[in-house]
Write the structure tokens for this entry.
Amino acid sequence: MIIETALICLALNVYHEARGEAFEGKQAVASVTLNRARDRRFPNTVCDVVKQSSRRKGRRRACQFSWYCDGRNDRPSGKAWGEALHVAHDAITGAFGDNTDGALWYHHFKSKPIWRSRLDGATQIGAHIFYNIRRKGTKF
């Protein structure tokens, strides 16, 4: 049951974050999600990682993955959903390696989040830029 729940949560994240990406981009999103679940700075389950959000005083809810709290319908469909399920299954079972070299953060290449300046180790895979190393002395 836990593995099935993790599979669905991971597949939803891959679907919404990398639906239009080639396999390598979908794999990278899955890898970041799993890397976070293994890292002590993040929740320890895939579903909790995907659903992680925070509220800051006077600000709207901020989600780690924008699709999760954007107010849109999150129901997946079609061929892209099947592909996301396949990638999630392969990621969970270890059928492929981490092509992000341990990345914990990413963003679309067109966006310029302020936090990116605190990170090193950037690599681009498809439409996303991935970060795997924090600079010394920074707190995230």
Remarks:
- The chain is about 40% helix and 15% strand.
- Residues 2-99 form a domain with the Arc Repressor Mutant, subunit A fold (CATH 1.10.10.2520).
